Amino acid sequence: DLTENPLAAVPSASFRGFTRLQSLAVPPALECPGGSDAWQDVTVDRSSWLCQGQRSSCNSSEQLAWPCPENSVCAPDGPGLVQCLCEGPFHGYRCLREGTFPMLLFGGILGSATVSLSLLLWGTQRRKAKSP
Fold it and tell me: How many CA atoms lie within 13 A of 59 on its CB side?
């Protein structure tokens, strides 16, 4: 129940992860998070909006605003929110990369760059150090 809170606006990301939220009362100045389409029943009276029965945006055939890319599945993530989860073995941006992350290659390049830069700085800066 948020009716007594002096809220001017509630960002939609505030309810991210609230997948089991089934009843919510908000002040009359605000709407239900995710809009009326994200709820099965929206009741308005003088003191509040009552939002009941959160709908899954993944099952909605009427609104294609949340298309998940190929190689992924849609998962609800709160009122009017979804997330696209990559199916194995895909990963990365829009689930376009297949396989696993090349940890050995990444670690080797990062390690050799760090050692090279350290040696360069040590060699160029050691002559500037004062002798005791």
Answer: 7
Cis-peptide into 89, omega within 30 deg: yes
| Model confidence pLDDT, tens digit, residues 93-131 | 888 888 887 889 999 999 999 999 999 999 888 777 666
113 is a domain residue: no
Quote the CA–CA distance of 35 and 61 in Å, as a whole number. Answer: 17
The answer to the question of residue 85 being in a domain is yes
Distance CA 97, CA 13 (A): 27
Please give the Cα distance from 123 to 74 (Å, whole number): 54
Domain count for the chain:
1
Domain-embedded: residue 108: no
The pTM of the full predicted model, rounded to 2 decimals, is: 0.61
Residue 81 lies in a domain: yes
pLDDT in tens, 47-87: 888 999 998 878 765 554 557 888 888 888 888 888 889 98
